[in-house]
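Q&A log
Question type: sequence-to-structure
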Amino acid sequence: MTMLDRETDGVLHSSYQRSVAEYWNNNPNDDRVNTKLGDVDGLYHHHYGIGEPDWSVLEGPDDTRQDRIVRELHRLETAQADLLLDHLGDVRPGDRLLDAGCGRGGTSIIANQRFGCRMDGVTISEYQVGFANDQARKRGVADMVQFHFKNMLETGFDSGSVRGIWTNETTMYVDLHDLFGEFARLLEPGGRYVCITGCSNDVTGGKSSSVSWIDAHYGCMIHPRGEYFRALAANGLVPVGVTDLTPATIPYWDLRTHSELATGVEKPFLTAYREGSFQYLLIAADKVGR
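Response status: OK
Response body:
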């Protein structure tokens, strides 16, 4: 796998961003989950799953149970990626899409396969950029799917140059107003932004102990639900669809508790979802005006 040898000061603008990049460059525990699931078919994701599991994977021979669980977890995380892409609207081969906070690039590769379009992914993890570009080369799509060591708050791409943008469990690392301002600049008029994210339920008050635990584990800053809609409105991005995926993701987390890959985050996630202090949302928003 290729690692980048590049000055990072032009991309990482704060000590917090450097700490986030270091986490995703060097965290072996969570990294093991992502790589083990991706090894199933070579599509490496950096997000969680949705849908009802096939619970029969827990039955049968002990010596193959863990492999069955891994394959089912991977099916559910790929289903999540497919659902996100379903909400991008009318994407054609001549269009360009941006995967902001792309991880190892699995969803970008799926998008290229589905739409035949140009894909760019950006991440502040040099390791992830090298890994994702290696995967694109192995699949023979490096001319159409490219990953860049860039900050999604300041990509440097041309204004109005992309038809669609998505973030998948990455917005909790950045200021939403800054992020959506950059997305509004990048999107062509009528372009679509799709976000899947975990957010705290600000109707119930401040962050619960479980949500705070998740924050501390990942070194992130989970935003309250209302902040997403305030930041979208402030930047001319109009929601056209909001889906609460919380009921659809709980079974994924239940299944993960049976996996030897469990990292300890399963209980806080399940507690927060079930008590209502944390929600898993899909938001689709269109750019209005010029």
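Response note: The first helix runs from residue 15 to 26.
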